[in-house]
Write a structure and sequence with these properties.
There is one protein chain. This protein has strands at about 1-5, 10, 15-25, 30-40, 45-50, 55-60, 65-70, 75-80, 90-100, 110, 115-120. The chain is mainly beta.
């Protein structure tokens, strides 16, 4: 599975961005999908995850109520809608796909995209 993340950019605090992650090589319909982020000098952290059933999602406390993860299995794509962005959301965002395990654990994911930079200015 190859994952290609896009949609990052520079936005002012309070603004919105929508990240996309398109997969190729295999259908994602039975995979759990996640978004992680890594800021300079910090470890990669969980942002949001969604199981093959779209009713099962999970979010980091820091983004709850602001970010929404969704998936379109027909398009083999996962999205992250980010609203009310804050400077502390600045990071490289990575999408990932895995076949099981806890959504918030990096080891649950076998496939990773290359990352897309999100920068939020104050």
């Amino acid at each position: 599975v190859q994952l290609q993340a896009s949609g990052g950019g520079l936005v002012q605090a309070g603004g919105s961005l929508r990240l996309s992650c398109a997969a190729s090589g295999r259908t994602l319909s039975t995979y759990a999908l996640g978004w992680f982020r890594q800021a300079p000098g910090k470890e990669r952290e969980f942002v949001a995850g969604i199981r093959w059933s779209e009713s099962s999602t999970d979010y980091a406390d820091s983004v709850k109520g602001r970010f929404t993860i969704s998936r379109n299995n027909a398009k083999n794509t996962v999205y992250l809608q980010m609203n009310s962005l804050k400077p502390e959301d600045t990071a490289v965002y990575y999408c990932a796909a895995g076949s099981g395990g806890f959504l918030w654990v990096t080891n649950s994911y076998a496939y990773w995209g290359q990352g897309t930079q999100v920068t939020v200015s104050s």
